[in-house]
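Risk register update: the risk of archive-format incompatibility is retired. Evidence:
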Amino acid sequence: MAHHMQSPKDYLRQIEEEEARRSDRPSGRSPWRWVKRMLLVLFVIVLAALAFAGWFSISTLRGVSSNPFDVSRLSSDAAGRTNVLVLGVGDPGHAGQDLSDSIMVVSFERSSKQVATISIPRDTEVSIPGYGYRKINNANALGGSALAAQAVSGLLGVPIDYTVTTNFSGLKQLVDAVGGLDVTVKEALVDNEYPCVTNQYLSCGVNIQPGQQRMDGAKVLEYTRCRKGTCGNDFGRAERQQEVIGLLMAKLVQPSVWLNPVSATAISNALRTGITTDLSGPNMVRLAWAWSRKAADPVRWVLSTASGGLLTSSGSSTNLLPAGGDYSAIQQQAATIFTNPPKVEE
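Archived output:
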């Protein structure tokens, strides 16, 4: 005899009728119907959330990374140290848009779980392979992030494992996407020559007063870009950039910003608009988490002309040269930055 298998719909109707008979109610008024509807709605919501998360992750990674889905472990040296070069460039159409006026190396040490940031002034003179000695910010314009990585590696004496390149718009949108950053301004920053947002060739100035304040993306750009007046030239600017990047990383690893569809979509758009990298998706997550955990206790070093900064100016030229005549002292400090943190006098 052939057996007829009940459809799910028939099976649910049978249960509903039996429940109605037990409760002596008409089947149309059974509470099971409402339970079934609630479960169905919940199921649809879960499916939609999973579909959104999958689409979001795939589309974002494809737009940001040249190697989005590689599951290989992080590259590192024999001591378990991973070095990531972070380059800041101008928006398309900006004067000198390919010059990397912000150059930072973020080092992660696996054994101690420490993180260090090293900022290199854009006017530092280095050997750029194939082009001789030039200011280090030219490397990206001449050969992209790969050539910039070679120039930075030659200066610091450490390998560069990955690169991240961002522009003004990408940083501004990311800060806005996470709801702004709480920044403690140590002293008034006044730069009367700061360019206008609508015309980079005109000066609108900037005036940021001391104290803790919530900064949106536009204000963070002013805070990290101003370098004249009381802003402390390129060295002061680099210190504030290190501070802001740490604050931003701490926000980006908070589950609340990713569980909110509005902020998650805004972050995705900001990443695709202004950031490119050769880091894979899994490794981005690993490094962002490691960085954020040490944001309140970082090892920070800005190469400068201050005592211990290991750079010197060369007379009337704007080029910055190694204080000892060669890069050996800089390379020694970079190699031992975790065991012998730099001491730079203001």
